[in-house]
Amino acid sequence: MRIRHKPLGDRNLIGSRVEQRRLALGFRQKELLTQLQVRGIDMTASGLSKLEGQVRIVTDKELKGLAEVLHVSYDWLLGIPNEATTV
After folding, report:
1. What is the SS3 assignment for the chain?
2. Which end of the chain is more exposed for a tag (fewer CB within 10 A), N or C?
């Protein structure tokens, strides 16, 4: 795994959460991308890296797919406190 050299951006709220959960599940980026593609979300490795680095925006379809693949709620990805949030 490469270490991020650039600071996190400010283009999305979920990037750091996506990376945190992906790592907790033991997924490599390639595995996450494959699961997203099964759900009809075509994202490149560069796109996922930029998403996790918070330097690109996230579409609503991507948010939905990421929540499904990572088994978390939208609220959790967005950092909204909620007792019922799945982790």
Report:
1. CCCCCCCCCCCCCCHHHHHHHHHHCCCCHHHHHHHHHHCCCCCCHHHHHHHHCCCCCCCHHHHHHHHHHHCCCHHHHHCCCCCCCCC
2. N
pTM: 0.85
CB 63 within 8 A of CB 74: yes
Half-sphere exposure of 24 (CA within 13 A, CB side): 11
Site of tokens 């490599």: 28
Q: Any idea how long the chain is?
A: 87
Write down all domains in the chain, each with its CATH number in brackets.
15-78 (1.10.260.40)
pLDDT in tens, 25-37: 999 999 999 999 9
**Cα three-residue angle 63-64-68, rounded to 5 degrees:** 115
Place of tokens 């948010």: 63
